[in-house]
Write a structure and sequence with these properties.
The chain is mainly β. It has a single domain (about 15-20, about 25-270), classed as Jelly Rolls, CATH 2.60.120. The protein contains 3 helices and 15 strands.
């Protein structure tokens, strides 16, 4: 993304809902070898300037306060999809007709501490993506967002079948999707609010759920490559994901449209 002025999402149809570090030579030498990328990063709008957003009493920048979608837009779009509504101070994805798709906060973050609240409807599935990019492949087509970004799973563990798939619960809420299970698994039932937190610092990542640390890992290491090769993101299964997830990059935040009803609120971030 090009760093420039704030991208203001197309809000005219939504305003009525406004109520609800550098590595040393040794580290570089030890890094896993992956084929060079043949992807281009082509943003669809200007990058949001985070400094323009309010800072709360804890020192976090509030990037969604429940009053509008400034700084947010659709993945691969220059506007916010119409099925993402600002309602009752929440970001609410609704089922039904109309334009959907993942929604992103259009700023590239590298090291950060991001927090938000979420709840889902019965049997719902969604996700929080971090370090995302808008990549086009050799043919010039936009790749799926999940191929460039880790996913903090958002799920009704009791009623969605994905909770029983994967390995050892690594598709349940707060897990690094299909890679590392969240332990302990302390999510609340559908219809109740959960708190999420993701900390990324120089490739070291920690997931929290409802105030507890549930997993940690380090990207771009031999262990990371091995995990990818043993998952749905392997070089054989999804080559684009294997290549892009091994590419050291920063990126934006996103909430997933998985076709199910989900709510988010109190989205805030501290850059480290």
């Amino acid at each position: 993304m090009k760093k420039s002025f704030i991208f203001i999402s197309a809000l005219a149809a939504l305003t009525i809902f406004s109520a609800c570090g550098k590595k040393n030579n040794t580290e570089e030498a030890a890094a896993p070898q992956v084929d060079s990328l043949a992807y281009s990063v082509v943003p669809f709008g200007e990058e949001t300037v985070v400094a323009a957003f309010p800072v709360d009493s804890d020192g976090y920048t509030v990037i969604f306060d429940g009053t509008g979608l400034t700084g947010w837009r659709g993945y691969g779009k220059d506007h916010a999809p119409e099925r993402w509504l600002v309602e009752d101070s929440c970001l609410h994805f609704v089922r039904g007709e109309g334009e959907g798709g993942d929604i992103i906060f259009a700023h590239d973050f590298q090291n950060f501490d991001v927090q938000f609240d979420w709840k889902v409807s019965e049997g719902a599935n969604s996700g929080f993506f971090y370090m995302g990019q808008e990549n086009k492949n050799d043919e010039g087509n936009l790749e799926w967002l999940f191929v460039s970004t880790p996913e903090y799973q958002i799920l009704d563990n009791v009623n969605h079948p994905d909770a029983k798939l994967g390995v050892d619960g690594n598709r349940q809420s707060a897990s690094l999707y299909d890679l590392i299970p969240a332990v302990p698994q302390n999510s609340k039932p559908f219809g109740e609010w959960n708190t999420a937190r993701v900390v990324v610092n120089n490739g070291k990542v920690t997931h929290y759920q409802n105030g507890e640390k549930v997993l940690e890992y380090e990207m771009w290491t031999p262990e990371w490559v091995e995990m990818l090769q043993n998952s749905k993101f392997s070089e054989k299964s999804i080559p684009a994901a294997f290549r892009l997830l091994n590419d050291k990059h920063d990126g934006f935040f996103a909430f997933q449209d998985h076709g199910d009803e989900v709510w988010y609120r109190n989205v805030r971030v501290k850059q480290l």
